[in-house]
Design goal:
By secondary structure, the chain is of the alpha/beta class. The chain has two domains: about 5-15 and about 85-190, 3-Layer(aba) Sandwich (Rossmann fold); about 20-80, no CATH class. About 45% of the residues lie in helices and about 15% in strands. The protein has ten helices and seven strands. The protein is globular and about 55 Å long. The two termini are about 15 Å apart.
């Protein structure tokens, strides 16, 4: 079991899951590279840095796909793809939070609060560090330092959990213990009982 004073956790891909099959199906239905376009740095970066809204991001995807009616429909379908909370992860993190601060660290857009409300996670963590709110996105080391400060813990006393290896590596570069999340079993080292 790890010894730590705070847990910092990613949102998407760990606590929040998306209907990836639905995303792939809509690409096939419309014959458009919606996902590659949506997550291309030139499209998503301004939104996750708080320089553009989520609505502006969707409009930029539509424009990059040609702006025609099929592009509009495809992007609307993409925006409507379902997401939900992984209940096992939520329960485990809630138990960990009874012992140490929990901070969500997420590359998010201006609509994060609405999404947290929809998922029943408004007061789930002690603090939420959103890239759009602070103007810094993972894997920039500064966002991990902000999260540790928000938790009131030294970076070397923090555990950081993320599904993206580059984000875990960046957390390790500032002295944190990094957990590359692939499944609930990766969180057993936190010593919680889910």
């Amino acid at each position: 079991m790890l010894s730590f004073d705070a847990v910092l956790c990613d949102l998407d891909g760990v606590l929040r899951l998306f209907d990836h099959d639905g995303q792939r199906e809509l690409e096939q239905r419309y014959g458009l590279p919606v996902l590659a376009t949506a997550f291309a740095p030139e499209q998503i970066r301004p939104a996750i840095l708080g320089q553009a809204t989520a609505e502006q991001w969707l409009a930029s995807i539509t424009a990059a796909l040609g702006g025609h009616p099929d592009a509009v429909q495809a992007v609307n379908a993409f925006a409507a793809v379902d997401f939900w909370v992984d209940e096992q992860v939520r329960d485990l993190l809630a138990e960990v939070r009874t012992r140490v601060p929990l901070v969500l660290v997420t590359n998010a857009m201006d609509d994060l609060d609405a999404h947290l409300t929809r998922m029943g996670l408004t007061d789930f963590a002690d603090t939420v560090i959103s890239s759009a709110a602070v103007g810094i996105a993972k894997p920039d080391p500064r966002i991990y330092e902000l999260a540790a400060e928000a938790a009131g813990a030294a970076p070397n006393r923090c555990v950081f959990i993320d599904d993206r290896p580059e984000n875990v590596a960046a957390a390790r570069s500032v002295g944190m213990t990094g957990i590359h999340y692939r499944g609930i079993e990766d969180l057993a080292v936190l010593g919680a009982k889910a």
